[in-house]
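P.,

For your records, the input lines for the assembly:
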Amino acid sequence: MAIPVYVVTGFLDAGKTTFLNTLLNKYNWQDIKMLVVQFETGEEEFRSCYRNCQFISFPKKTLEQQPLQIVEEILEVLRVYTPDEIWIEWNGVVPFSDLQALLLQKGLRDLCKTQKVIHVGDGAAIEGLLGRTGSALPEQIASSDFIVVRNIYSSVAYRRICRLLRGLNPGVDIYEVRGTKLHQDLYRRLFGRREHPLSLFFLTVLLLIALHIFARPVLEVLQLPVNTIINVFLGIILQAIPFLLIGVLLSSAIQVFVPQRFIERWFPKSIGLGMLVAILAGFCLPVCDCASIPIFRSLVRKGIPLPVAITFMTATPVINPVVILSTYYAFSGNLSIVITRVALGIVAATLIGLFFALRPPKGQVLSGGALDRMMCSCGCYEDADSISTFFGKAGLFIRHSQAEFFDVGKYLVIGTFVATVFQVMGASIFNAPQSGGGLALSMIIMMAMAFLLSLCSSSDAIIARSFANRFPMGAVMGFLIFGPMMDIKNLMMLSSGFSKGFIVKLLLITFILCFAVVFIFYGLGVI
Amino acid sequence: MQIRAKVFNPQIFLELICYVSYAVLMIYLLSSGRYLSYVTPRMKPYLIFSAVVIGIWAMVTLGRLLRPQHKIRSMHCFVLALPILLLLLPHRSLGTADISGSYIGGNILSGQASPYGSTPQRQNPPANSESNAAGPMPAEAPAERNTEPASDPFSAVDSELLPEDEAPTDSLDSAILDTPNYAYDFSNLPGLDSINKTITVSNEDFGLWISELYVNMEKYEGYTVSITGFVFKDSKELGENAFVPMRLMMSCCVADLMPVGLLCKYDKASQLENDSWVTVEGTLFIGEYTYDDTSFDEPQINVTKITPAQAVEGYVYLY
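Structure tokens returned:
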């Protein structure tokens, strides 16, 4: 039987030892033989009340210079003293992976098994520390199973810190400690059994297969066109995956290969010039809206002014060459429609950008806070600028793009599914209103439809074309301009990196300005 | 001093499985032509690109298979696993029956101007071609109707814009629209016999002929046409004595399937069964179709013979 190992991580002075003192000196644990290994000596000392704990400590210097000697010493202790549990207090400035390497050395590897990694954080200090103290702290947070935060006195701060921590470690269990007392439910939550993630995955796969076999006939009896939903879903997703790949590859390339210094030095400082660059870039990039959102995210992270990045994100899917070509096909070579789409797209995108320039959003735009600028959820905490070799960068580039693919992809899958169900089930609600209503009403209908259907911007022109004789041209143009900028799929993908408030604001502003631009152009006859 | 350790990493393993299955599945779909049930041939280069990128990812990921990692995640893999799973689980590709349901690709699109796809309404300039500034107006800016009468998605594609690499692949389904550069060589259209004035539209050339007949309807007036499709009847819209033998056309992906076909005049149309497959033979004439108080010229068929036909697999592709 391998000895279970519990690890406590946390920055210097986060309260690791205090936490261990309260946790381990539990009355009904006094029969459990424990070994406590410390890799750090803080202000507080570890004290055992019930004499059930053996205690050894290693300074950071030994850890850096003679890690194998540490392994030897631990093995030596284990030979004479056979503990039921090992508790490790890890050093706050050394990455957790170093401890893993230690524990996986020959000898220790068969004797112990890491069970839980608990991170202890000081709520008052953690926001200041993250992003300034190197890569060890975020790495420790990201690889923990359980996070204990103390020293928080307002629920606003608590929520903010939770968001920060979950940005690094999505879905992690966070426990707030007030004072020094530990509650019973901490023990319950800490030692509760969790399903192995891999078995969870395969269970879900089995569940899906079972649903497909058993639930599908039932749903089809209930007149739900499951077969159609599957087909449409696959059709949209097969179209979207290649474009998403283009998007994440480009955005990771920006993130990894373009140094911060380059952007700071060469990117136009003024908003106007920046927007011009953004629009020109939009002309050159043959990507649809699935691709522009990851790029948008990495532009904001790289410190491009927000209005410029927004202009880029909203303009690109409307004005890029693929879209121009497909609009040209769909409207049978009608250049006036192509030009109108591009021109109104540029105008709307510029206005949206300008709005955010004049009224910059309050608070954090990126959901990960300031931290987002230097790190991503991909588990690569190396600063892109600090790796100099080409192969190092190429490796980072691939890991980064993979992580981003999954990160944005999950929202793409959810968004596609919702849009599919809407297309298959809810389309009839749009059958009723004909072009009889005024321009404003039909524009709102068409824009809402563009939002719900979430078509790929490189192909929505054909669909728009099919509406062209039931709706006035202004409404179709609203569909063509608003659709690529915002839809369910985009909204979901944006939520992978931005705060809710910002997304809602962006959605509203985009809708209002697109509506206004198209309405003024068509409704008031400014042709 | 740095020490390293190697241990099997289940998360990387799972990701690897997903990458490899995606790449393999994509190669299978592309080489068998099965991808055409979901997207158009236009997507082929993009799908190849995705298979290559994910294949490279798989190879690079292999190097990390023995990297220790304490916190294992798995659910993100469903981004690839879900499409893979759905592709593997049995499902039919969409047919005529699915389109006539309450489904956008069917109702909205076929309920538009006419059920014959996107071409008919541009043959005649509408009466109100000057009043283009405000208010609801029909499909297109009127200027285009007058100056570019022959502009049409098909001819535009064929004469100028068809990329070289769009050439059809041999392995594809038999029903795929062959899009050769016929615009330059009208004498050699497949199935055309100008001496006997007959056009035999094969299933592969359905889309090609529909567009050709719309563009050059005068040229083919009086020809005997034989064409296969499923029966679409709608006494309200088409009248009692007409039906359309249709095929499903895909513009971008399976989400936008819509029926296309030529209207046929046939006295006993009411005896035909909706959605049954027939081969229609008849004489081509220029008929009139009215929608929204505007009438359009369009090629129609006066039916002389109807024979039941085998259902045709696959769709018609626009470009």
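Two observations worth noting. Residues 10-88 of chain B form one domain. The CA atoms of residues 280 and 306 of chain B lie 5 Å apart.

Regards
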